[in-house]
What we know:
Blueprint: E1 3-6, H1 12-22, E2 27-30, H2 34-42, E3 46-47, H3 51-57, E4 60-63, H4 68-78, E5 87-90, H5 96-107, E6 112-115, E7 118-119, H6 122-127, E8 130-134, H7 138-148, E9 152-157, H8 163-191, H9 196-204, H10 211-222, H11 231-248, H12 253-267, H13 278-283
Parallel strand pairs: 1-2, 1-4, 2-3, 4-5, 5-6, 8-9
Antiparallel strand pairs: 7-8
Helix pairs in contact: 4-5, 8-11, 8-12, 9-10, 11-12
Amino acid sequence: MKIGFIGLGIMGQPMCENILQKHDDDLFVFDSQKDKVDYLATKGAIACTDACSLARKSDVIISMVPKSTHSMEVYKTILPELNEKKICIDMSTIDPSVSIEISKFVNNTGAKFIDAPVVKSQAAAISATLGIYVGGDIEIYKKVKHILLYMGNNIIHLGANGKGLIMKIAHNALVSQIQNGVNETISLAMKNDISVEDYAKAVSYGGGQNFYLDSKAKAIAENNFTTAFSVENMAKDINICLTLAKECSVDVPGVEVAKKVYDKSLALGFAKEDFSATIKTVRDN
């Protein structure tokens, strides 16, 4: 299978590098930023100058782009190149309703479409230990599972088109609330002269232990907010969750609280920093 990959950002680049190391056929790459394409070409990928030429040459087309509008643009652009021989995998985190709309017009060409958003951040993309949530036809999933395993080690099929994204949004909304609990209580501890290190160690002894704190305590202690997953991307996911909750008539007051923290973090200029930078918003309030 010849693979095409569109979107070579913080996550897409290391995901591509893992494909290059493990796949025994061509990998075509495209991004709107030519330097990203050129970099992967030095690693053995085949550079494409546009998305259509990539889709034309590829059997499996993977996209990893930031927003719903970007995914929609990608698939409308490559639509003339799709046919019954093509499989499309959108690994972006976008609105489930938009993904379902894309799946319908892609499937109308005879091509197949699955959503396969990822969890964890850049470090997991580098080590190929991403979690991947899949929505779409299970037989298509089985055909491409070996490709997904190039990039992740925990993969779950959750049902029809859009279900992978619904689970991803639920997951990230949960993380935002765990994070906010950490932000508030770590600020309380610090106000009472308990260090971040001691706070994290003490929490690990009880029922409050969580992956977010385990992975971010050192960065918080050092005020190191180098981006692995940005404030603006988590803010986007929280807003998607609120839209989904409204569509489903589900009350999510905890997500509303997280949104307030993220809105303030954006206003304070933290958009491009790692999402753990929200500690500054809560701690310094």
